[in-house]
Amino acid sequence: MKDxxxxxxxxxxxxxxxxxxxxxxxxxxxKAIGFTKGALYHHFKxxxxxxxxxxxxxFPLTSISFDDExxxxxxxxxxxxxxxxxxxxxxxxxxxxxxxxxxxxxxADSFRHYEGFAKKKSMIIEYDVEKAKVIISNAIKRxxxxxxxDISVVAMQYxxxxxGLAGDFIRNNSVESSIQSLRDQLxxxxxxxxx
Length: 195
What we know:
Layout: H1 2-18, H2 26-33, H3 37-43, H4 47-58, H5 73-91, H6 100-113, H7 117-141, H8 151-172, H9 175-193
Helix pairs in contact: 1-2, 1-4, 5-9, 7-8, 8-9
């Protein structure tokens, strides 16, 4: 039963990703997986519940885990890059119909059609920015970086560069190339902050 549910979620993900939430119907999903609508409703109450399950599995809302009191800013930079890289590798599917625009559209659909998604995402972002402020402050105290910077602005730059990865992803259509661009940008920011 669990395997069947996971199969439905994975196949629905492909449809939502390549078409959109609005364009995909329960009939489309049942045809794609070879189940009757009744069998599909046995596992999910409605399309909304199935969509939430898809997003929960394929777009996990996770914060980065590390020891924020003892990590250097340089190490934090690498942890951020690795975290984003792993999320993208887990999320992106091998599908000839997949394009980065589809991926971004599905994220937008998540904000529109998954009640509470935006609030959860916002809380994680706020938490990560606060952790970044602690790391940057500690890096200043340890003499790792200059002390004439605005900690809040630099913390937001880390977030903005990570979000900006979407532009590189669309332009290059490559996770690896986009991650390398992010790495280059964050390393350049770190270099500019160093004493």
